[in-house]
TrEMBL record:
Keywords: ATP-binding, Cell membrane, Glycoprotein, Kinase, Lectin, Membrane, Nucleotide-binding, Receptor, Serine/threonine-protein kinase, Signal, Transferase, Transmembrane, Transmembrane helix. Gene3D superfamilies: 2.60.120.200, Phosphorylase Kinase, domain 1 (3.30.200.20), Transferase(Phosphotransferase) domain 1 (1.10.510.10). One of its GO terms (molecular function) is carbohydrate binding. It is found in: Cell membrane. This is non-specific serine/threonine protein kinase. One of its GO terms (cellular component) is plasma membrane. The keyword Disulfide bond does not apply. PROSITE patterns: LECTIN_LEGUME_BETA (PS00307), PROTEIN_KINASE_ATP (PS00107), PROTEIN_KINASE_DOM (PS50011), PROTEIN_KINASE_ST (PS00108). The keyword Ribosomal protein does not apply. Pfam families: Lectin_legB (PF00139), Pkinase (PF00069). In the N-terminal section; belongs to the leguminous lectin family. The lineage of its organism: Eukaryota, Viridiplantae, Streptophyta, Embryophyta, Tracheophyta.
């Protein structure tokens, strides 16, 4: 009610001349990305002084296919419907682009003006720069409309001229004008961009400075036709199969939107002819009076509301974590691990200190903490979901708590506790010392030997067999991938992240879902068609992981002229009877190389990832063949690869136009039909 009343007061129209000006130097301390901060962040973007990082930047975490967005948290007036006036603006920012692997760069970043409130388009990683998805990247409409200046570092066929250019995009990833600097954008040096728009000429101009050299482009744009009255402004970046750092060091913006005089007079007022100076004084006086009155009234009402909230909070007994005790009781029903207060977990992590951070993903951050458990100090991992967590994020949180709290298996991560607070959703796990499997597979500094890899495979299979057939209900995990497979000090498997898990009675079919969720490259193609998650979907993902562990290669990789699909490659070598060429080159010729065992794992991997779900084994069958040398290998036809797995190559060139794709709170890709 307070908001509505205040909105009414402030909606009184007074002829105006509005301007907006701000400047941020990210080397200065600040609470950027916080809920009430001037800078908002989404996806993988985060503040780490002296930079605003747009994408993940740690090669040890295998952080490819990253998307991040940063924008000014308030709407920016672009044009006024009543007067027809369009803003003039100029902005300047310093930034850096640096590939983590100097052999490959991908994909670039952009300054953008788009729909407010801002959000990352579904499936917009890779060449889409976090601006568009595969359906709208050449003709964005409605709330997808965007004007951007791109700094592109990867050539996407039929879209980009080269892998080093600056372009202006108008509702399309195909630039209307571009230039290719003779100096690389990916040198890692600090560059400066100056972007201006003049409303009288409708000209958008860009100047990029690399060292002492400038590069210029411009084009004419009618902002009223291209964008809404109020816009979000900020930066967007994405990566594909390679990892690239995108950093903003400083940013300033100035805008002026001058409204025309209003011809509407107050009721009962007689027309008068006044000079522009007198008229300006009258308008300024009215505006000032209305503003002061509105502020006083809203402040008083806000004070009353705040007092009411303080009284309400003082009479609560649960940190405000559940407004409805019935909801609390229902949620805790059957949950064994203890429920923590937010303050306890904040203290355990030094108030979620940066140095306590173990990793990050689409879901938020994971921190190391220390809690007193059974009269002993115990190190734990605390997953803190992003403050932007949606309804889907809460569903994943509740699913994970309700399911994993009831499971007991040596190859599953142990749940210790949880917190459902108005300040955030948190899950407390045992701390698994060696981190996730993907860090070890792609760690160039160390080699995961074959016996260790085989032991990890068997541990993962054992966990899935338990989930599918050995517990009281069948559990579909829904997101089997190396980053969800943790390793303890002895390199034993600990499967985690049950945010997408589903419970199904043994022998029953799971319900269909409107949205298919998982991670690109690991999603069962039949799941997209049937919309029915099943244990067979997990088996498919398990098969892909087997191929990945043996080969040391990602399920999908992008090069300048083609896409590499691991499953297709293994099927091809299998048809030529040269399947051992798949084996990670770092393992070949070693004393611990077991060719028969490796071949067995690869063939089982193909069997599990069979395009026909009815031809796939159960986890019990797959484990029997993996663990028994006497078990007969399945007879697979030489070539069973039909097409790239759905979502395996979701990008600019190979997007699935009949699908919608977005990211869940646990960093997963989601697919839904437009029908």
């Amino acid at each position: 009610m307070v908001f509505s009343f205040c909105s009414l007061l402030f909606s009184i129209h007074v002829p105006f001349a509005t301007s907006l000006s701000f400047s941020f130097n990210f080397s200065d301390p600040g609470s950027y990305c916080a809920p009430d901060a001037d800078i908002a962040c989404a996806g993988d973007a985060f503040f780490h002084a002296p930079f605003m990082e747009l994408t993940m930047n740690d090669i040890s975490e295998g952080n490819n296919h990253s998307i991040g967005r940063v924008w000014y948290a308030q709407p920016v007036p672009l044009w006024d419907k009543a007067t027809g006036e369009v803003a003039s603006f100029n902005t300047s920012f310093s930034f850096q682009i640096r590939p983590v692997n100097t052999d490959y760069s991908a994909d670039g970043m952009a300054f953008f003006l788009g729909h407010y409130p801002s959000g990352i388009p579904l499936g917009s990683y890779g060449g889409n720069l976090g601006l568009f998805n595969g359906r709208n990247n050449k003709n964005a409409t409605g709330s997808d409309r965007i004007v951007a200046v791109e700094f592109d570092t990867f050539r996407n066929l039929r879209v980009d001229d080269d892998d080093n250019h600056v372009g202006i995009d108008v509702n399309s990833i195909v630039s209307v004008v571009s230039t290719s600097p003779d100096k690389k954008l990916t040198l890692g040096t600090t560059m400066t961009a100056e972007i201006s728009y003049e409303n009288s000429t409708e000209k958008l101009s860009v100047i990029l400075w690399i060292s002492e050299t400038s590069y210029r482009i411009n084009t004419s744009i009618d902002m009223k036709l291209c964008l809404p009255e109020e816009v979000a402004i900020g930066f967007s970046a994405s990566t594909g199969s390679s990892i690239e750092v995108h950093r903003v060091l400083s940013w300033s913006f100035n805008s002026t939107l001058a409204g025309k005089s209003s011809s509407t007079l107050l009721p009962g007022a007689a027309p008068e002819t006044v000079s522009s100076k007198s008229q300006g004084k009258v308008q300024a006086t009215i505006a000032f009076s209305v503003a002061i009155f509105s502020v006083l009234v809203c402040s008083f009402m806000g004070f009353l509301l705040r007092k009411q909230r303080v009284w309400k909070k003082a009479n609560q007994t649960s940190d405000g974590e559940f407004e409805d005790e019935n909801d609390k009781a229902e949620f805790e029903k059957g949950v064994g691990p203890r429920r923590y207060h937010y303050s306890e977990l904040a203290a355990a992590t030094g108030n979620f200190a940066e140095e306590k951070k173990l990793g990050r993903g689409g879901f938020g951050h994971v921190y190391q903490g220390c809690l007193r458990i059974d009269d002993k100090d115990r190190h734990v991992a605390i997953k803190k979901l992003s403050s932007e967590s949606s309804v889907q994020g809460r569903k994943e949180f509740e699913a994970e708590i309700k399911i994993i709290s009831r499971l007991r298996h040596r190859n599953l991560v142990q749940l210790i506790g949880w917190c459902d607070s108005c300040k955030g959703l948190l899950i407390v796990y045992e701390l698994v010392s060696e981190g996730s499997l993907d860090k070890h597979i792609y760690n160039r500094g160390g080699l995961l030997k074959w016996p260790e890899r085989y032991n990890i495979i068997i541990g993962l299979g054992s966990a899935l067999r338990y989930l599918h057939s050995e517990w009281e209900q069948s559990i579909v995990h829904g997101d089997i991938k190396p980053s969800n497979i943790m390793l303890d000090a002895s390199y034993n498997t600990k499967l985690g992240d049950f945010g997408l898990a589903r419970l199904v009675d043994h022998g029953a079919k799971s319900e269909t879902t409107k949205v298919v969720m998982g991670t690109a490259g690991y999603i069962d193609p039949e799941l997209v068609n049937t919309r029915r998650p099943s244990t067979g979907s997990d088996v498919y993902s398990f098969g892909i992981v087997l191929l990945e562990v043996v080969s040391g290669r990602h399920p999908v990789a992008e090069s300048e002229d083609k896409f590499f699909v691991l499953l297709r490659w293994v099927w091809d070598l299998h048809s030529k009877n040269t399947i051992l060429e798949v084996v990670d080159k770092r393992l070949r010729g070693g004393a611990e190389m077991d060719e028969r065992q490796m071949e067995r794992v690869l063939v089982v991997g193909l069997w599990c990832a069979h395009p026909d779900r009815s031809e796939r084994p159960s986890m019990a069958q797959a484990m029997h063949v993996l663990q028994s040398e006497d078990a007969k290998l399945p007879e697979l036809r030489p070539q069973m690869y039909r097409a790239e797995p759905v979502l395996a190559m979701l990008d600019l060139e190979h997007g699935y136009t009949d699908l919608s794709v977005w990211t869940s709170s646990s960093g997963c890709t989601a697919v839904g039909s437009d029908a």
